[in-house]
Amino acid sequence: MLLDDIIKISAMESVNIECKSRLNRENTEGWLKTIAGFSNAEGGSFFIGVEDKSNKLIGFTRKEADNERNFFNNQINEHIFPRPIYKLSFISYQIHDKELFIIKIDVSESPIKPIILKFKNVPSIYMRREGFTNGATYEEIIAMSIKSHNTQFDVLDSGYEYKRENFTKLLSFYSEHNSGKELTDKALQSMGFFTNEKILKNGAVLFSDDYSGERTQIQCSLFAGFTKGSERIITINRFSGNLIDSINFIMEFVNLRMNHAMVKLPDSRIDLDAYPERALFEGVINALAHRDYFLEGTQIQIDMFKDRMEISSPGSFYQGEKISKTYDLSNIISMRRNELICKVFVKCNVMEAAGTGFDKIVSDYADADENHKPYIFSSSDHFTLVLPDLTYSLGIKNDSIPAIDVLPAPPVSEHDEKILAFCCNAPRKASEIANYLGISDSTYFRTKILDVLVSSGYLITNKQGNAKAYKTDIKKVKV
């Protein structure tokens, strides 16, 4: 009995069909790349229980089909990202009065591309063309990226089923911030938390009680002085868990380590926290809500210094321009990168329905002097909110750019003076220097300008996290 006997397939459809008699347990990459290739192209149909080339039906018992389906789903979840969109169904047929099943997986073209297949931490991108699956070309990868630029991570289907008992922390968080009210399933579904078939969206999974994946990684650090590159690190704590626990982790870390002071007034005294609680909470919510969850291997960073705290979130402002240091927080406009996550925070009454939430931060610092005003900046890969420590009387350390009198001879480039001045007070990463100069952080810039200044002794390099940082040798210049 052949596949054509139970399903009519046209000649045009046949190029987008792949058949396997059984899923190979020893070489899962061999068939997973077909699913990834379908997703990166125009979709296709994948049959299990059908002999390749001959299309002869091999079939499964009901129990065997269930096992094969579960193995398929587990391998997809483990090795392919973003999760491809597919519909899996059992097709029954009779042979010798015995009911058997084949499995049909209809794979749709993915709205977010490229779909990546990862084995042993090595990512690969495949494309389906004219009945064959091969590695995608450089031009195809660029075209896929451009086509899917506006797709949001959190609204894609996860493949996981919604179960109310898995979201006790979210439900308690909602009740706490809404006078004891209950967050209903109807309200969750109306936000797009799960589909009519009870399938969770990606953003919803991040709220589940047992989530512990890499997409919510956080690193909180406390430094003894003013910079990362030259100061002793007192402590570093790392965390990965659901978004509710993430909020609590950051708030607890900062509250346990921030400074407190007592301010004398003419007829009383008031207690003063380094960081106003509402401003801190708004900054944390903003970082979680607008983080780019597509970026694997990244983390939200909370860095506490002697004079300030920096809250950095992966991804620049969504569909917004890169901005240099600005104190005008109220006028910053940024589109939501994660629509579902923002809706949940709004529903929980911890985020404004419109705007960035920076107004509350500005309000909490309204009475502070100019050296204690919060500011924000963004680059191509992160945005950072800076909250001054109100108990540090001098305010944020002066980081003004000095004038440089001695320059390399012969000059390396027209940017020499600005680079050496910018790197005088603190070590800077190449991306920060390029952003300051208003030029591209290119290979040419690093090798033909920065590296030449290093080899001539005007710049000294050291490590800042995992990146190289550049610091001016002040013995070589006159400030």
Automatic annotation (TrEMBL):
Residues 13-131 form the Schlafen AlbA-2 domain. Transmembrane segments: none annotated. PANTHER family: GLPR-RELATED TRANSCRIPTIONAL REPRESSOR (PTHR30595), SCHLAFEN ALBA-2 DOMAIN-CONTAINING PROTEIN (PTHR30595:SF6). One of its GO terms (biological process) is regulation of DNA-templated transcription. This is Putative HTH transcriptional regulator. It comes from the Bacteria.
